[in-house]
Amino acid sequence: MVSVIIPTFNKADYLDLTLASFTLQDVTDFELVIINDGCEDHTDLIVKKYCHRLNITYIHQDNRGRSAARNAGIAHSAGEIIIFNDDDRLAHPHFIAEHVKELCKEADIAIMGWKGSVLTIWKKNRLRLNKQMFHQFLSRNPDLINKLASIDTLQLVSPEDVERNFADIVDKYIIHEADASDNLQYLIDIFSDDLTDFQLAWTVGTTANMSVRSAAIKEIHGFKEDYIGWGMEDTDLSYRLCRAGITFRLRRDAMNFHQIHPLGCSTATNDLRQRDYQWYQNVVRFCETYNSLDALIFWDICRRKELTFVSANTLLQKLRSTDAGVQHELLRIYRELFNVTKPPN
């Protein structure tokens, strides 16, 4: 049995399309564990719509955030394998099968699936879109140019479209098949899909598309629930999985597609600014929690552009062959720098 964990908060129309995609899976031995994290929209009606077609465990709770919602899903799951898929992600028909195939080869691994992006619901001035890729999208869909310019909200894809013509819908409304930034493409090009020799492999861990054995999740007691707002709760989980001996692998065939949606209730620019602020505050919280050299090096990468993942990886590789005194001194320097420069709470 496989358990797919889907937390959701006020994204009923996107969840509708996501659940439609799970009706197309080429395996049947799976359950969807959907956690309603205090939704105020019509999420209940959407879930009810699929209850007779999919094996769904549906949980209601007050709004407690991303970590608490996923922990509730894990607690109510029955599968030996856990797959995390967000409420706004269309699953490719081979999505579950590809995750399972890889996890059956080895026990102590976590699989990161490949992520693309599609435009399913248009919301004028509220979507974060790469200009060049959006222009390419319009060049493939010239009939939409005038509509998108004049209409504030437009449903481009219906659940019926997803079920009847999944491949055609993706081809038509895709923004980019493989999001280079989301998939950290440049790191994959250097370290391979198996992330060989990448000392910071845990940084690629994102529960938008990730699978691991449930025993490994339970061994580290799931997600920490003290992160506020957006970001870092899945990086924290991945960090602790790596510490527990789990190896991260990327598999391109285990693919889902992010439905581009508003990040908040304001304009795309303001929402992004707020999200980035929350994320960096959580990076600081992460470093305060672990206070380790690799965590502090990650913080240094996040706060400035001079240090890259590649140069940081080279540094960590060299440190492996040095004596403990050198490592301890570098950790002391990083701790002092972190304490001096971190933002106030």
Detailed description of the structure:
About 45% of the residues lie in helices and about 20% in strands. It has two domains: about 1-120 and about 180-260, Spore Coat Polysaccharide Biosynthesis Protein SpsA, Chain A (Alpha-Beta Complex), CATH 3.90.550; about 270-340, no CATH class. It is of the alpha/beta class and about 350 residues long. The protein has helices spanning about 10-20, 45-50, 65-75, 95-105, 130-140, 145-150, 160-165, 165-175, 185-190, 215-220, 235-245, 270-290, 295-305, 310-320, 325-340, and strands at about 1-10, 30-35, 55-60, 80-85, 90, 110-120, 120-125, 155, 175, 210-215, 245-260. α1 links the parallel β1 (about 1-10) and β2 (about 30-35). The strands form two sheets. Strands 1, 2, 3, 4, 5, 6, 9, 10 and 11 form a nine-stranded mixed β-sheet that branches. A two-stranded antiparallel ribbon has the order 7-8. The model has no long low-confidence stretch (mean pLDDT about 90). The radius of gyration is 20 Å and the shape is globular.
Give the topology.
Elements: E1 2-8, H1 12-22, E2 30-37, H2 43-50, E3 56-61, H3 66-75, E4 81-85, E5 89-91, H4 95-103, E6 109-118, E7 121-123, H5 131-140, H6 145-150, E8 153-155, H7 159-164, H8 166-173, E9 174-176, H9 185-191, E10 209-213, H10 214-219, H11 233-243, E11 247-259, H12 268-290, H13 293-303, H14 309-320, H15 324-341
Parallel strand pairs: 1-2, 1-4, 2-3, 6-11
Antiparallel strand pairs: 4-10, 5-11, 6-9, 6-10, 7-8
Helix pairs in contact: 1-2, 12-13, 13-15
